[in-house]
Amino acid sequence: MNSPANTKTVRELIQVTSDYLADKAIESARLSAERLLADVLGLSRIELYFQHDRPVLGQELDRFRSLVRRRAGGEPLQTILGQTEFYSRPFRVEPGVFIPRPETERLVETTADLLAPADRRLLAPMAVEIGCGTGIIGISLALEIPRLTVHATDINPLAVDLARRNAHQLGVDARVEFHHGSRFDPLPARLRGEVDLLVSNPPYIRQADIPGLVVEVVEHDPVEALDGGADGLVFYRALASHMNEWVRPGGHVAVEIGDDQGHEVTGILAASGGLDLRIIKDYADRDRVVVARLGDTTQEN
Fold first, then answer.
1. 90 is catalytic
2. Residue 85 in 3-state DSSP?
3. Between the chain's N and C termini, which has fewer beta carbons within 10 Å?
4. Phi, psi of 137, deg, nearest 5
5. Dihedrals φ, ψ of 249, to 5°?
6. What is the mean pLDDT of each run of 10 residues along the chain (301 residues)?
7. Is 188 a catalytic residue?
8. Is the pTM of this model over 0.85?
């Protein structure tokens, strides 16, 4: 039983926990404290502040302390809670699958714009995503563009299973199909030359940099979702080498990049025939997305 001296209110617990997590070098310590306590109490973050004088006791306090210990040990907030919010929608997150990052919203925003021009063909567009992870990109695009169909692949069977469940939960499983396999290998052959958009958030961390990543990344994200080879560009070369097989003339390729890779990735896509190349910044003013349009390779200049 908790004595009055040990009893803490919601407000006091948030402050104490924020300080504790900050001392453990946990990023966004206050956000973590609020999200964990809200989960334990079955409240939203806003509701916490309407109940700031509420005492937290017994099993609720014990569970909260257990979750805080996990967070202090470097476990990502998303896997502790079992979900994350992306593009204002809830996605389930599970161990063994790459955890979505907020900056990928810029990729979704950019590609949704690419699929919505005044083009008769795009009344019912088709997209292919390589490396789907939890399914956030393909599912978000399908929700933003009601007539869009998506085929998405991932080499990780845990990711494919989770993405399918996320698509079902969000009501787009009839238009988003997930395939287990490496890159383009599991895609139906009938899609060749018919794809309006090829999109990917590929592994782009240089191998030598992986051990120096923060604990919650290096110990909790699958290495195959991080490792971009010696220079971080292996996956971009693979996408570029096959994009003309799958994307129709006039279609687009859009990829997320590391913030120092814009020049190199545009060069890779240009060398394979990409036109109208653009580097798009995220909302922290860092290079984040590269977009290319495919020309008609059957026509000579």
1. no
2. strand
3. C
4. -70, -55
5. -55, 130
6. 65 96 93 96 92 93 96 95 94 96 96 75 86 98 94 98 98 97 97 97 97 92 95 97 96 97 98 96 96 72 39
7. no
8. yes
Single out the catalytic residue among 64, 98, 178, 184: 98
Q: Residue holding tokens 């001392």?
A: 23
Specify whether the CB–CB gap between 153 and 132 falls below 8 A. yes
With 0-12 / 13-18 / 19 or more C-beta atoms within 10 angstroms meaning exposed / middle / buried, residue 50 is exposed
Calpha distance 296→248 (Å, rounded) = 8
**Whole-number Å distance between alpha carbons of 36 and 17:** 10
Q: Are 78 and 166 in contact (CB under 8 A)?
A: no
Name the residue among 193, 87, 196, 76 with its Cα closest to residue 144: 87
Burial state string for 192-226 with b = 16 or more CB within 10 A and e = fewer than 16 = eeebbbbbbbbbbbbeeebeeeeebbbebbbeebb
Q: Of the residues 76, 100, 125, 202, which is catalytic?
A: 202
Q: Minimal CA–CA distance to 191: which of 111, 267, 251?
A: 251
Parallel/antiparallel/unpaired status of strands 83-86 and 176-180? unpaired
The catalytic residue among 184, 201, 203, 235 is 201
Please, are residues 159 and 139 in contact by the beta-carbon 8 Å criterion? no
β-strand pairing of 195-200 with 149-154: unpaired
Structure tokens at 7: 């009893």
User: What is the helix, strand, coil percentage profile of the chain, to 5?
Assistant: 45, 20, 35
